[in-house]
Amino acid sequence: MTTVSGSVVRDPVALRAAMVAELGEDTIRSQAVAAAFSVVPRHLFAPGEPLDMVYDSNTPLVTKTGPDGTALSSVSAAHIQAVMLEQAEIEPGMRVLEIGSGGYNAALIAELVGPQGAVTSVDIDPEIVARARACLQSAGYEDRVRVVQADAEHGVPEHAPYDRIIVTVGAWDIPPAWIAQLSEHGRIVVPLRFAGLSRCVAFDLAGGRLFSHSYCLGGFVPMQGEGTYSETLVPIHGEATLRIDGPDPGFDVPALRRAVHAPRTERWSGAAFDMPDELELFVVTSAPHVPFLYASQQLVDQGVFTPAVTYGTAAVVEGGSLAYRTKRENEDLGGWESGVYAYGPQAETVADRYVRLLRRWAADFRRRGAARIEYLPTSAGVPDGWYVPKRHGVVAVSWR
Q1: 55, 16 contact by CB (below 8 A)
Q2: What InterPro entries does the annotation carry (predicted)?
Q3: Which CATH architecture has domain 3-227?
Q4: Cys staple from 305: which of 150, 309, 325, 327, with CB 3.0 to 4.6 Å?
């Protein structure tokens, strides 16, 4: 149970105040967002859940699971909700569309837009819609949030235009309807999936294209309906797989399987390792078809792979050879040094290629927000530099 000043606390008001104080240390920057979190009773959107879990800022609360136990809907962790609301920079009087209903986040948005604003929340699942409406009514927000059942791929045109669209499900693409329903200088905040990773990106609209205002690490349960996406899994060693968005680009699987059973090549960059989310983004957007290597803890314990692979790490593949990023302690660097393990007949080549990427990132882009992420509708054509095609357009990433 959460404690305040050394005492066990069961009062939701006190727990809410403690959560807001914690979020204020490193996440909440604005008085308006802090005030919204201070007012909205989060526990009324998670009935039956222990109060300490409800008001733990890093704990999502699953509200529906599929037959296989996969989470289909949740009340997101307060931390990521605060991050996205700060990214959105919502002002009083704005019209906001929330994609993915849970109720709580919509209530926070209602506090931010005030009585002159409007909040519409849409979800494809009738059970989630009914639950959101019931929770909003319980908390006193039934007249301040409009909850709509529909496939969010098409937005909610009858209440457009929107000054802000906040997407609380993992999206593989940005449908044309979302862009069309934005106001002239609107913003979309979306956990966008591309190149095997997800980033919460705040996109500003300009000339029919979307340009990143900010981005950060973040993932959500995947979108359902027409916006559903899938990834390709390529088994290479028992419980080790390469995962890539979209179709298999033609990996030489038999050769890769032979490679990971052979001795590995080790290379160290001499460059500091930190901000792994920024480094990973640089690696996957600096080469074509960079998959993510995942492996079980058992294979890590057996020494086949390092712990980096348990949560997935970007791999550079060339023919029947591959390399992935690892790290080691380095006192001269004051922390950790990045390095590479490589396998296969071209291990030296892929290791050197990867190490060059690690060194370039450390020398030129080792900071937050160095990437510029753009979304271009199909009609805008193909950009220069690195990009990945989507169903309705392309995601392009450049480094500054």
Answers
A1: yes
A2: Methyltran_FxLD, PCMT, SAM-dependent_MTases_sf
A3: 3-Layer(aba) Sandwich (3.40)
A4: 309
Burial of 254 (0-12, 13-18, 19+ CB in 10 A): exposed
d(CA 361, CA 372): 15
Q: Which residues contact 372 (CB under 8 A, 6 or more apart)?
A: 211, 212, 397, 398, 399, 400
The residue length of the chain stands at 400
Lookup: tokens for 114: 């005030």
Each residue of 74-128: pLDDT tens digit? 788 999 999 999 999 999 999 999 999 889 999 999 999 999 999 999 999 999 9
CB 24 within 8 A of CB 30: no
According to the model, what pLDDT value does residue 76 have?
Answer: 86
CA 391/CA 180 separation, integer angstroms: 16
Cα–Cα distance measured from residue 100 to residue 109, given in angstroms and rounded to the nearest whole number: 13
Which sign does the torsion angle of CA 278, 378, 181, 73 carry? negative
pLDDT confidence bin for 9, thresholds 50/70/90? low
Q: Which residues contact 331 (CB under 8 A, 6 or more apart)?
A: none
**For residue 117, what is the enclosing H or E element?**
none
Q: Which residues pair with 198 in a beta bridge?
A: 193
Q: DSSP per residue over 330-364, as a string?
A: EGGGTEEEEEEEEESTTHHHHHHHHHHHHHHHHHH
Active site residue 338: no
Quick: pLDDT tens for 55-72: 998 888 877 667 776 666
Q: What is the pLDDT of residues 317-354, one digit of tens each?
A: 999 999 999 999 999 998 999 999 999 999 999 999 99
Most confident of the following: 68-77, 155-164, 228-237, 296-305: 155-164
| Residue 59 exposure: Cα atoms within 13 Å on the Cβ side | 15
Domain ranges, ordered by start, for the chain: 3-227, 231-364
Place of tokens 């593989």: 172
Rounded to whole angstroms, the Cα distance separating 162 from 202 reads 15
